[in-house]
Amino acid sequence: MELLVCVTCRQGAPVDDAAPRAGAVLLDALSALDWPGDVTLRPVECLSNCSAGCTVVLRGAGRWSYVYGNLGPDQVATVAEGAALYRAAPDGVVPWRARPEHFRKNCIARIPPPEAPR
Amino acid sequence: MELLVCVTCRQGAPVDDAAPRAGAVLLDALSALDWPGDVTLRPVECLSNCSAGCTVVLRGAGRWSYVYGNLGPDQVATVAEGAALYRAAPDGVVPWRARPEHFRKNCIARIPPPEAPR
């Protein structure tokens, strides 16, 4: 499975080329964790959720993809907990009540897995 | 390519089991159009963009997926125009200025295509 992180996210802050982007800070912090071998962290240039960033996507082959937003660059534990639950769900669907509180309140969208050709 | 439509969307209206869902009305109206053979319309039970529905997703193999929201069940022409532009873009990326105005203002999120295994 993959954890995509929007690294161009400024969390609505003015452009400041000297300061690191909030999304890049979040990815750096997540990268410092010890992830299972089947989890790939991937930076993305704009997930187009700019009004509600920082933003991550959880996805994987045969799974629903989930977009979560309104994350701060310090919410590493929240993302890690949500990713672990997602990883444990074969179809990627974690029951709403089982998700971290921030994920319950800040699910931006979800997309079903592709269907097998008919 | 696929056009996914959230058919459980109530557009924030109270539950009324006797009335058709706004998202289902949108799908029905879209289904009445004459689509190219490589476009598949697909109903989805909740795209989890409930606070900003109705919601559609444009996606396809090797393409970026785009989620658009805040659609009314009558915005068939907007969705059709946006879908045609998406279909014409090999990677699914339609320049922001070329999109229908509603799509410019109501892009909920986008997700990159899976990368080839490294």
Automatic annotation (TrEMBL), chains A, B:
Pfam families tied to this protein: DUF1636
Gene3D superfamilies attached to this UniProt entry: Glutaredoxin
Transmembrane segments: none
Name the UniProt record assigns to this protein: Metal-binding protein
